[in-house]
Each structure stands twice: as structure tokens, then as C-alpha cells.
Amino acid sequence: MSEQYEIVGTVDAKGLTCPEPLRLMQEQLDKMEAGQIMKVIGDVGNKRSMERFLKMRRHPILSSVIDENDDKYFYMYAEKSANARTDIPISSCTLK
Questions:
Q1: What is the pTM of this model?
Q2: Rounded distance, CA 93 to CA 47, Å?
Q3: 7-79, superfamily in CATH?
Q4: Residue extents of the structural domains in the chain
Q5: pLDDT tens per residue across span 74-84
Q6: Rounded distance, CA 30 to CA 76, Å?
């Protein structure tokens, strides 16, 4: 898969269980400036909670696709928001 975005950081959350993928994403976001883009690689089983976490914190998801070579994994590209919410807990994997 060729990169279509200028990536400033990558989170490899393959094989991890919640809330670890959310914590890793937040750690990467903390290192970034607003407008920068991170790439996330994760298990399809965590895709929904990871996307929901970013959406609830107001970080735009630019793309989220299942790996065409291995459907156990997905790739997501998210942009750090300038007006992100910080009051959403990382500990919850059943964000509604």
C-alpha cells in the first residue's frame, strides 16, 4: 500500500487488546501538532473502538481500510485536531 499522506508517526497496534491500542494512539497524538497525520495499523476486531475513540475526541479519520493482503488487519490515517476533546477516557473500549 503506497502512502497517500505525509505521515509523522505510526502506531502498530497489531495483536494488542483494548485499551492498549487507544493508549498508543493517544501517546502518538500527544507528540503531534494540529494538522499532522498518523498512520495506525491494527486488528480488525479493534477497528470500531479505535475509530470511535478518535471521532469522539474530534480527530478526523481520513481513511480506514482493511488490508487487501491480510484481512485480519486494517490501516487508518487520522489527523490531529486543533480542537480535540481531552475528557474522553482511554480506559473504555465500549465507547458508545
A1: 0.88
A2: 11
A3: TusA-like domain (3.30.110.40)
A4: 7-79
A5: 999 999 999 99
A6: 18
